[in-house]
Amino acid sequence: HLAPTAPAAPRRCPLRRRALFASPRRRRRPAMFAARLARAAKVVVGVGLKDLEGSKAAMRKAITFAKPGDKIIAVHVPDLVPELLLSSLSEPGDSGDDTLASLMNVPDKARSIAKGQIQELAQVEMAKLGKDLELDYKETAPSSDSKVALLAACDVVGAQLLVVGPGQGGKGSVPIFAAQNANGLTVCVVRDEVK
């Protein structure tokens, strides 16, 4: 006598079966990718006119450290026009409008030259390393204390890493100040060019 047979189970799609038995690593890939996008870092590079070579070294190091998806923001905090310079002119009208205008435009020209050099260096370095990173250049309002303004700019952009050069002659005050006062932020001082 023949026993009743159970109906055959429906066949599963082979692709679904492969997905069910895939390695745990393969199943985590979409989650890892989403987490990497969420973790994309914002790196601030301090740019100073007194130590432009140190700023360039800092930009090179920031590009070396950066991963795909990271954003590099070069921040320059201009100094206020020194009051001593303005007060040394006894009467601005005596000097002539051209002299006063040329004194006021010198910092603007230097800033635009520095910006061009930093951006050009960044493009060359990214091409050399084969990286495609988002790069931005910001200039804050002039400040009498550029160290505090630089850390404030880091807070505004939500930076996770601040990369600065060593300062003029390798003895700048910004690296020390940043290391002591940049809470919740990693500080990297690039001294590769100092001899």
Describe this structure in a few short sentences.
The protein has 195 residues and is an alpha/beta fold.
- Strands of the widest sheet, in order across it, are 3-2-1-4-5
As a whole number of angstroms, the C-alpha radius of gyration is 27 Å
Task: Report how far apart the termini are.
Answer: 97 Å
Q: Which residues form runs of ≥5 with pLDDT under 50? A: 32-38
Report the mean per-residue pLDDT as an integer. 78
Give the count of helical stretches: 8
List how many beta strands DSSP finds: 5
Question: What general form does the structure show?
Answer: elongated
Descriptive key words:
alpha/beta, five-stranded parallel beta sheet, elongated, 13% strand, 51% helix, 195 residues
Structure in words:
This protein is of the alpha/beta class. The chain is 51% helix and 13% strand. It contains 8 helices and 5 strands; from the N terminus they run ααβαβαααβαβαβ. The protein has helices spanning 14-20, 24-38, 52-65, 83-88, 92-95, 97-129, 146-157, 174-181; strands spanning 42-47, 71-76, 134-139, 161-164, 186-189. A 5-stranded parallel β-sheet has the order 3-2-1-4-5, sandwiched between helices. Helix 8 links the parallel strand 4 (161-164) and strand 5. The chain is elongated.
What secondary-structure arrangement, pairings included, does this model have?
Layout: H1 14-20, H2 24-38, E1 42-47, H3 52-65, E2 71-76, H4 83-88, H5 92-95, H6 97-129, E3 134-139, H7 146-157, E4 161-164, H8 174-181, E5 186-189
Parallel strand pairs: 1-2, 1-4, 2-3, 4-5
Helix pairs in contact: 3-6
